[in-house]
Amino acid sequence: MRRLRRILNVPVVAVALYLAAMAGIVWASYAGAQGMGYNWQWYRVPKYLYTLTEDGFQPGELLIGLWASVRLSAAAFVLATLLGALIASLRLSGLIAGKGVSVIYLELIRNIPLLVLLYLFYYVLGPIFELTRWSAAILTLAVFHSALISEIFRAGINSVANGQWEAADAIGMSRAQALLYIIFPQSVRFMLPPLTGEAVHLIKSSAIVSVIAVAELTTVGRNIISDTYMSFEIWFTVAAVYLVVTLILSFGVSALERRFNPN
Amino acid sequence: MTQQPVIEAHHISKHFDGFQALNDVSLTVHHGERVVVCGPSGSGKSTLIRCFNGLEAYDGGTLIVEGRALSADAPHIRQLRQDVGMVFQQFNLFPHLSVLENLTIGPRRVRGLPRAKAEALARKYLERVRIPEQADKRPDQLSGGQQQRVAIARALCMEPRVMLFDEPTSALDPEMIGEVLDVMVDLAESGMTMVVVTHEMGFARKVADRMVFMEAGRIVEISPPEIFFTNPETDRAKLFLNQILGH
Fold it and tell me: Which residues of chain B are within 8 Å of residue A173 when distances are taken between CB atoms?
């Protein structure tokens, strides 16, 4: 076994294996599409991404949809972070009522499917509070992701050694001062990687708001397909666009981390 | 002028889940006095001094610090803690701040001093603990002995009325113990009121006004060092001294 693994990990062999596997996947999907007589029309895809006219670069429908997705996700993430911080501070407040509220909130949110939560916000709370599609979508995503974000905050804060709280206490700091000046700055580096993961997760789950026809990337993709019947090309393209955005985010944050933490 | 004592503990007791950490402990510490607390591990000496600044809650008796009743949930606990400096076994420096910031954060955020004043204070006390040149380093760039001296300076920057030391040299490599003890002797000679939990009997002999010997949550013996080290009243203290001095 070990000898086989060593042979397979020789660089040339490894690269060849990797290329063969990828080629296999591409060939299988292509062959499958051919088998069902699918008519590939990749040449029609670029104009949905962008066009170059005399006025210069014009974003296509997909890029406009992407911009909507990015704004939606950014707004939801900011709100989710605020909500998460609130829930985490209730949880850590030492108040019995605060802990009770936060635990029930967490259990509720974590055990309702995202899609059902979206329907609740759009079809139930929407009419009551006169929410637009956009605000229902943002609220749903924010509430759903605030649960995990509050757990990330809690874990980050608990990861700081108890002696730090005691040292802050011993110089007469209040709990809020200790949290702000001593505990939080030390827990950021524990929280950054899982927070990035959660941001990526949020961008991906933002696709679900297409079911209430918010004009973001997935909705735009679906509309294009109903006009053109190019489901294979457009879904591949939409998937690739999400992938590019989330990869850029992940790499950006890990570069940021390296700068903060040179060792 | 007769001054009230800095710390008056009357019949303090404390339980940790069925285990009695402190059992009817009474101790009074006067201004300018140096008290060294010793005893076998688990005897309650750390718990006792942690009660003195409210880091540990006690469940029986009364504790008066600087004339005011102290408990962990007293409304003036933060004010009291500024009067009571604490040095921990594990230093507990703030690793994300520079040495200078470690010293200025309390004066600035808690006492509300302007930055320049806080920094002047910090430099004065860094001088006092003999590491003025380390001001801009991070704690993890310093040796253990230097870190503990920074921790002492951090506590002094709050200009406390009394300093508590919780086994300040126990986490140090042997060659660094001396530099920390020297700083503490200096401090004692300057008239600071000190309560020190330590096994450093050479230090105790040099600075202590009174020795407090604890065992199993009780104070077994309180006596001046000349008596404690030569002719302790209790057999338990005798045995303890033999164990730590006898080799």
Answer: 78, 106, 109-110
* Tally of residues, chain A: 263
pLDDT per residue over A85-100, tens digit each? 999 988 887 788 989 9
pTM: 0.80
The sign of the CA dihedral B31, B32, B35, B36 is positive
ipTM: 0.91
Handedness of CA B193, B196, B201, B203 (dihedral sign): negative
Q: Which residue of A has its CA nearest to B111?
A: A172
In chain A, the N- to C-terminal Cα span, in Å, equals: 36
Three-state DSSP class for residue B164: strand
For helices A96-110 and A133-158, angle between their N-to-C axes, nearest 10 degrees:
120
Task: Reply yes or no on whether the pLDDT at B2 is more than 70.
Answer: no
CA distance B166 to B87: 6
Mutate to test the interface with A, among B80, B96, B111 (most CBs of A within 10 A): B96
Q: Which residues of chain A have pLDDT under 50?
A: none
Exposed / middle / buried, residue A102 (Cβ in 10 Å: 0-12, 13-18, 19+) = buried
B246 pLDDT higher than 80: no
CA–CA distance, A116 with A121 (Å, rounded to integer): 9
Measure the CA dihedral A137/A142/A147/A150, to 10°.
180
Write out the E strands in chain A: 50-53, 56-59
H/E element holding B196?
A: strand B193-197
A162 min Cα distance to partner chain B (Å) = 9
